[in-house]
Amino acid sequence: MKSMTGFGRATATLPDGTELSVVVRGVNHRFLDLAIKMRDEFAPLEPGLRRLVGEFVLRGHVDLLIRSQRPAGRTAAFDADAAARYAELWKEMASARGLPSELSARDLLSLPGVVRTEEPAEADEAAREALAGTVRLALQDFDATRRKEGEAVRGALEVILARLEEGVARLDRERDQVAARLAETLRERVRKLAEGIPLDEGRLAQEVALLADRADISEEIDRQKAHLAEVRSRLGEAGSIGKRLDFLAQELHRETNTAGQKSRELPALRAVLDLKSDVEALKEQVQNVE
Prior knowledge:
Helix content: 55-70%
Largest sheet: 4 strands, mixed
Strand content: 5-15%
Strand order of the largest sheet: 1-2-4-3
Number of strands: 6
């Protein structure tokens, strides 16, 4: 089991001396949502990087941040010819206008075109391979943290699942004697309201049967047991199980609500309330499972 939350990092030096740092972060999301941030010279690599991320991540929001620092002395160039032309033009103008004929180094360097910033070239094949390899290392680190977090989530789910199984068994026990308790409660109420009048046992049995049918939660309990059995089965599977677990949690929520609407006795209602609390805890945990 993998969590959708994780962090990975890797660093490398490209063949041209560029220092590379790759960071991968992931959080919950219903689908795979990938955001890549990197310099323009690496833009042609984006489709391949997206495919590479897809090898490790099936769903979740993933930020892939690629930082690069080029070697010193390779990002700017001095145009000596441009500086000489500026100096010569200035001397001519200064001589005609009676101005100082010399320009300082600061003056020359500040003039347009004397210092040019080199545009980074598109990454070559060796740089592309080195970048892809570094991203893969970062993704492997990211995947390791997701697996570790996933095991922690699995442990939490096991605890919640055990509570849910016990809660459904408790609700099932409360359901067993519901008809007998309804008969006794109805008999007592009729006796108080019609004191001295003989009871029609046949009619009473009909009313008890009607009330018991309305309060019957056998189907809801059976479906709850089936959903919990599938949750436990899915926890032992590899691969992406988060969507299925989320669906099962929603179904458990629905069946528990229906059981609560049908239950008329305090013990059963208390069992339903405890189940609702545990179902909410289950829903919260599965939101982080890939």
